[in-house]
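From the shared-data thread, chain only:
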Amino acid sequence: MRRIRQSLIRYFKLWRFNLYNLYRGSTSIIFLVRVEGESAWPLLMPGGRYFASGLHRPRIGDFAVFQNPRDRSRVFVKRVAGIEHGLYRMESAVSWGSSSDDFGVVPRELIVGKII
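Structure, as tokens:
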């Protein structure tokens, strides 16, 4: 049993490393996102890690990963509430979370990917 456990740990460490390299070496094909706040609760749990992809544009209802339009050093995960003329309007799943009302609409070039 111990040998199986060690093999699984080695396999997932290697897999995580390969995912990281795949993300760093390309244009966001697939990557891991860690959710830190409660604004997407109960759909995305605080502290949870989720796969995201930059291959497809987020649609209304999807969770998008994007740079904050006011502070591009910060990355947010929010639900897409609407799309108009290449601008994304974002919302939180909870009433106390930030939304496009707080940080503005998000242009397509700031979208990193969507949660898959």
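The helical segments are 2-24, 100-103.
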